[in-house]
Specification:
Length: about 325
């Protein structure tokens, strides 16, 4: 990375002006990661938009369980539209945020929060299954608004931990020509507390509770239910919800666990972590595409509505002359 005198003015603690943008200054691995990241983000944006359109077209599909899917789609779409464009550009032009404390703070804040918010939403899906097992009578009467409220509370919980770190970093943080915006130097002990409360504990609870949850669900399935109490529609719905929950658990474990390790290395300021973090961040972005696919696999109502909407879109693209041609 080269700097010319005419472009950079130094003060005692930071850069006061940087007015350059050097193309191709990142390593080849960063370029490869960026090119691979683009299709996942684009497909993920389209897929999550289609999920949102599906719920808007058919509000009856919004249930006390699927509200968490809707919330997760909104979170993924927001992350993809707000953070991903800048993240991709920054992989091509590593200097884009050097010397700009506000922009650098935005990069770090997004890296802190985007994965964490998704992690908490997956935790809420697990929490919802526990409620269904432990409080079945109450769960059947649970309103959809409950899912909205707990998601908002989870977002508030997450921001309460990270906003103070953002403020202190903006006030006390130092930006230099060698500063990587992925590293946060202020409040190292508080950072460990934040990671523990928003990353390590939720992740441990999420994966640690699933074996017991799965055991309890299987145990309940062996109970003999009188024929007059059987509800085939409700049984099918429970099966779909369980499959959806376990599917999300599996893909989350595969695609998110790597970035947890590199995030820990990054927090320890490991000199080898930067490029590995970029690769694991790319791996986690595959969820933008896989999660909507799981919605279609396990939730028949969503799948049928998406098919119906896509057929309508396809029919709009066919001209009357093409439609009149014999097959």
């Amino acid at each position: 990375m080269s700097f010319t005198k005419s472009h950079v003015n130094f003060s005692d603690t930071n850069i006061t002006r940087v007015s350059f943008l050097q193309p191709n200054s990142a390593s080849p691995l960063f370029h490869i990661v960026s090119y691979l990241r683009i299709p996942f983000v684009l497909i993920g944006v389209l897929a999550n938009i289609e999920i949102l359109i599906t719920f808007i077209r058919r509000p009856r599909l919004i249930t006390p369980f699927t509200i968490y899917i809707l919330n997760l789609a909104i979170i993924n779409l927001s992350s993809a539209l707000v953070y991903e464009p800048f993240a991709i550009v920054r992989y091509f032009y590593r200097e884009v945020s050097i010397g700009n404390k506000a922009l650098c703070g935005f990069v770090k804040y997004c890296q802190w929060t985007t994965d964490g918010i998704t992690r908490l939403q997956h935790g809420l899906i697990c929490f919802d299954r526990w409620l269904a097992v432990l409080l079945p009578t109450w769960y059947r009467l649970k309103p959809v608004s409950f899912g909205v409220k707990v998601t908002l509370l989870a977002l508030l919980y997450h921001q309460i931990w990270y906003i103070p770190l953002l403020i202190v970093d903006q006030v006390q943080g130092v930006v230099t020509p060698t500063t990587d915006c992925g590293f946060t130097l202020v409040l190292p002990q508080y950072q460990m507390v934040v990671r523990t409360m928003t990353m390590y504990i939720p992740f441990t609870v999420l994966f640690g509770s699933y074996p017991l949850l799965f055991y309890k669900i299987l145990k309940r399935r062996h109970l003999v239910i009188p024929e007059n109490q059987l509800n085939p529609a409700r049984t099918k719905q429970r099966s779909q919800e369980l499959g959806m929950t376990m599917g999300l658990l599996l893909i989350y474990f595969i695609f998110v666990l790597p970035i947890l390790f590199t995030s820990a290395l990054k927090a320890a300021k490991s000199p080898i972590v930067n490029e590995y973090f970029a690769v694991t961040e790319l791996i986690s972005r595959v969820l933008y595409v896989i999660e909507p696919y799981l919605y279609l696999v396990f939730m028949s109502g969503i799948r049928e509505e998406v098919k119906r909407h896509l057929r309508q879109l396809a029919s709009c693209c066919v001209t009357p002359r093409q439609a009149a041609q014999p097959i």
